[in-house]
Design a protein that fits this description.
The chain is α+β, with helices and mostly antiparallel strands. It contains 16 helices and 31 strands. The chain binds one RNA strand through helix 14 and helix 15.
RNA sequence: CGGGGCGUAGCGCAGCCUGGUAGCGCACAUGCUUUGGGAGCAUGAGGCCGUCGGUUCGAAUCCGACCGCCCCGACCA
């Protein structure tokens, strides 16, 4: 491919809207252009990278027996009504009407379609197990896209679906995906770690997310260096110190003007935050009022809280009016005297004697509150966030918190969808059973961005061989001065094509500085330089982009590299 | 949806406070010179100053509404 013909353009200055290195570099190097918030075009270079990522995923999913297919982007809403998700999912599911006034949706994912296909096609246990997958555009009207390709509204995802006779079969296919994902991310040059994850509102019996540690990541990971423990903070349950035993003292009101935060309260009272109780107020999607109580030195974990109160449609912070209406006072709140509320108390609070809690009166708190003596919990559960340095649940060493980007997930769906659609098979026992499903996603664009995050320097991108849009970037210097340069470059370009490789050939009449700078920005794994100087030194100069290592090789040797080292198949 | 910021040429920005019909750098076109690290000179093209409305003799500039984009938060099967 001649650079003079490539549809692209590099930018010398960083686009103003880009913050993450991957976003900046993909824009500057001409891989991407933005069309709207969270909506991007892939230019030819970007498309090539995405295709190569796709091919790696395809090979590994094929290797575990996946059968590739393709399912539609636009679905009749009836399908989503039948599974119930039409009503459970909020505005991120795009709904519209077709010309016949029929309700339609843009697919966010394809469990419904698979369950429907299973109902049509699978009759007998002999047809299972199996895995189907496809690469398809998804649209999710995210409340806020961000970070270039990290969180977008329209994106291509590989989603595979395993279909099994029973949970044991599901475990096998789940494990297969787990192992396939490890291979995929390794081949893509990503250090992904599998963390235990929340199963969300769809139920299911287990889930892992594959995470790449990155400061711009949206998830918080709980990691242990000494034993390898790793969970999403949403579900991580770590050790908590045993509070010192004390006799329960009688409650006592105390005036605390202006102490509306735990910090202010602890400072005012001259006590550690661990001697206070923090109240957080929420409304569930089905209009229940929830008071969550954790100790002042911890934060409420909303995922755990959602799961505890089974808030299928999530939680939102309660308003001051809603709090008042239940007999409580924001900033001075506690369940003492509360009404019409679901009271959820963290288990550590149950063990922590004589805490300072809100008096539900402006400017007042209560000392020596003990549960359940002073109020009655509806639920006692572990509902706090793990903190940096807390003891690891498996080995006790201090845990670390890191931000992470989810590059893939695997999810044991179970039978929710197949029950909803009546996707049954007739078993060996002569009975009808629901098919057991798993679903497994990998977002292509997000992976491309994460690869750049992991493989770049100040000058630009440095693609791993496995995903580079071209194996090499051929630069000519002084072609006008020395016809041998042009001749050699043309020959090399042709040789590469003959060898079944395509390389990017900078045939532009630009200064050496411009060509080198662009080559380093675009990030092909090898930069090949042909110039009077290199010819005098015996051939072509090879530079490894990632390391800067250089050597000069005769053209025949470069042909050898093209055949063996550069692993790019012809487009 | 709450908070903050920004919309002026392909990209990065100035001009706005104090109204007088738009400017700089890069990129682009043509010519000459230059050619191992973002070249030089000359000439040139490119803008409904996000949109609509208002104030004014006159609006990129002042006022209002709306739209769009970015960041933080909420959200994230």
């Amino acid at each position: 491919m001649r650079l003079s013909e490539l549809f692209f353009s590099t930018l010398r200055d960083d686009p103003g809207e880009a913050e993450m290195p991957s976003h900046r570099l993909l824009l500057r190097a001409g891989y991407l252009r933005q069309l709207g918030s969270g909506i991007y075009s892939l230019l030819p270079l970007g498309k090539r990278v995405s295709d190569r990522v796709e091919q790696v995923v395809r090979e590994e999913i094929n290797a575990i027996g996946g059968q590739e297919m393709e399912m539609p982007v636009v679905h009749p809403a009836e399908v989503w009504k039948e599974s119930g998700r039409y009503f459970k999912i909020g505005p991120e599911l795009v709904r519209f009407k077709d010309r016949g006034e029929r309700d339609m949706v843009l697919a966010m994912t394809h469990e419904e379609v698979v369950a429907l296909l299973l109902r049509d096609i699978v009759q007998s246990y002999r047809q299972l197990p199996m895995i189907v997958y496809h690469f398809q555009t998804k649209f999710r009207d995210e409340p806020r896209s961000r970070g270039g390709l990290i969180r977008v509204r329209e994106f291509v995802m590989k989603d595979s679906y395993s279909c099994d006779l029973d949970d044991a079969g599901l475990d096998v296919n789940y494990k297969k995906h787990y192992v396939a994902y490890e291979k995929i991310f390794k081949r893509l040059g990503l250090d992904a770690i599998a963390v235990g994850a929340d199963v969300g509102i769809m139920g299911g019996t287990g889930a892992h997310e594959f995470m790449v540690v990155n400061d711009f990541g949206e998830d918080t990971l709980v990691l242990c260096d000494s034993c390898g423990y790793a969970d999403n903070q949403q579900i991580a349950i770590v050790g908590k110190p045993e509070p010192a035993a004390e006799d329960a003292l009688p409650m006592e009101d105390v005036e605390t003007p202006g102490a509306t935060t735990i910090d202010a309260l602890a400072t005012f009272m001259g006590i550690p935050k661990s001697k206070t109780a923090k109240a957080a107020f929420f409304m569930t999607g089905d209009d229940r009022f929830v008071v969550a109580i954790v100790r002042g030195d911890y934060d409420v974990n909303e995922t755990k809280l959602v799961n505890t109160v089974k808030a299928r449609r999530g939680l939102r912070p309660a308003t001051v009016e809603e709090i008042k209406a239940r007999g409580m006072e924001a900033g001075y709140g506690s369940p003492i005297g509360a009404r019409d509320s679901v009271v959820v108390v963290d288990e550590l609070v149950m063990r922590s004697p004589n805490l300072v809690a809100g008096a539900n009166r402006l400017g007042w708190h209560v000392k020596n509150v003990n549960v359940p003596r002073d109020y009655t919990p509806d639920h006692v559960a572990e509902i706090t966030n793990a903190r940096e340095g807390d003891p690891c649940p498996t080995c006790g060493a201090p845990i670390k918190l890191r931000q992470g980007i989810e590059v893939g997930n695997i999810f044991k769906l179970g039978t929710d969808f197949t029950n909803a659609f009546g996707s049954m098979y007739l078993g060996e026992d002569g009975e009808r059973h629901p098919i057991v499903m798993g679903s497994y996603g990998i977002g292509l664009g997000r992976n491309v961005a994460c690869i750049v995050e992991a493989h770049h320097d100040e000058k630009g991108i440095a693609w791993p061989d496995e995903v580079a849009p071209f194996a090499a970037h051929l630069v000519t210097i002084g072609a006008a001065r020395d016809p041998k340069v042009l001749e050699t470059a043309e020959r090399l370009h042709r040789l590469a094509a003959d060898a079944g490789r395509d390389i990017l050939y900078d045939d532009r009449d630009e200064s050496p500085g411009v060509k080198f700078t662009d080559a380093e920005l675009l990030g092909m794994p090898w930069i090949l330089t042909v110039s009077p100087r290199s010819l005098a030194a015996g051939g072509i100069e090879l530079t490894r982009r990632a390391t800067g290592e250089r050597s000069t090789q005769p053209i025949e040797a470069v042909e050898g590299y093209l055949r063996s080292v550069f692993p790019i198949p012809i487009a």
